Amino acid sequence: MLAGVRPETLDHVALWVADRDPIADFLTERVGMHVVDRTDAFTLVGSDARRGKLTLFAAEGPREQGALKHVALRVSSLERAERELRDGLAVERPRDGEIYFGVSEGLRLGLVEAPTEVDYDLDHVALWSATPEETAESYEQLGFVPVEPGPSEAPRVEAGGAFVEFHRGEPGDPERPLLNHLAVKVESADEHIAEAQELGLEIDNIVDAANTYAVFVWGPERVRVEYVEHKPEFSLT
Fold it and tell me: In terms of Cα–Cα distance, which of 236, 229, 194, 191 is closest to 208?
């Protein structure tokens, strides 16, 4: 169990999309985010570079839903956030204080009203799972903290105040999934590499980039989890 190296926060959710610009435009024009970084390979968007973000990786389409049910962002005032969405967007209201809506290419977003230091930080990621309770227990082995189910009553785990919850459904094994990976911020990626090797976890990749250093491991139901360390010279805003 990766108990000695707990994730500090849920850093970002990475997606594979065929056309990232319309999604980035929606997020920056209607969901209170800005473009944090853009390269030939990806667009990184968020309301604060050091809080929860979405990474849009360019990929061949069409993409398949796969394990990803939705991504929900936390806001201090749902009424104000909904006004900023503007008219013409169909929303679902499964519970008080929550709305959900489609964006593009199968991406479904939610807004959840809750106390937050930064509006549009990540609140939770919802994944489909054939065995939700067992999957939640497996995420504990990856360093996530077990917590009681939230308003949806789905099993969930926590990373620094944000959640990953598991809804009963078939994630499948698509050739072109929408979800690229989940990323959690850690103090030391090297410690995670060493412990993952000791536990026999399947390491997919290790990436040493300009602002970050990260290790990717395969989690339950073929969802990749990235443990990302922000370097001292981290300069994104």
Answer: 229
9-230 belongs to CATH 3.10.180.10: yes
For the chain, what are the domain ranges? 9-230
Does the reported pTM lie above 0.90? yes
Helix ranges (H only) for 18-88 are 20-30, 78-85
Confidence class for position 237, pLDDT limits 50, 70, 90: confident
Provide the strand spans (E) within the chain: 9-17, 34-38, 42-46, 53-58, 68-75, 98-104, 107-113, 121-129, 145-147, 156-159, 162-168, 179-185, 203-208, 212-218, 224-230
Residue type, 175: E
**What CA–CA distance (Å, rounded) separates 171 from 138?**
16
DSSP for 108-141? EEEEEE---SSTTEEEEEEEEESSHHHHHHHHHT
pLDDT for 29-84, tens place per residue? Answer: 999 999 999 999 999 999 999 899 999 999 999 999 999 999 999 999 999 999 99
- Exposure on the CB side of residue 176, measured as CA atoms within 13 A: 13
The torsion of the CA quartet 116, 117, 119, 125, rounded to 10 degrees, works out to: -50
